[in-house]
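job 3f2a | input accepted
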Amino acid sequence: MNFKPLGDRLVVAREAEPTVSAGGIIIPDSAKEKPLRGRVLAVGPGKTLDDGSVRPVDVAEGDLVLFGKYAGTEIKIAGEERTLLREEDVLGIIED
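job 3f2a | predicted structure (96 res):
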């Protein structure tokens, strides 16, 4: 990837949600919502504080994260849909 986020921003690839419910019902495309989790592809250096120091980001490349429904900005990088998030938009890291 030829994109390096600045500050405390992250580039995330959304992961597809299951197409079948727990009860076995197939969910049509029109009823699906955007996934609320994704894999971190790139991480900025961190947030610059008032005193000029940089606080590193708690999230690392490769982490699976959960974020808010309306969080981030949709962008295209190399023809692929990606989401650009601030670290504060991440609700948590999903551990496998």
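job 3f2a | The longest strand covers residues 37-43.
job 3f2a | closed
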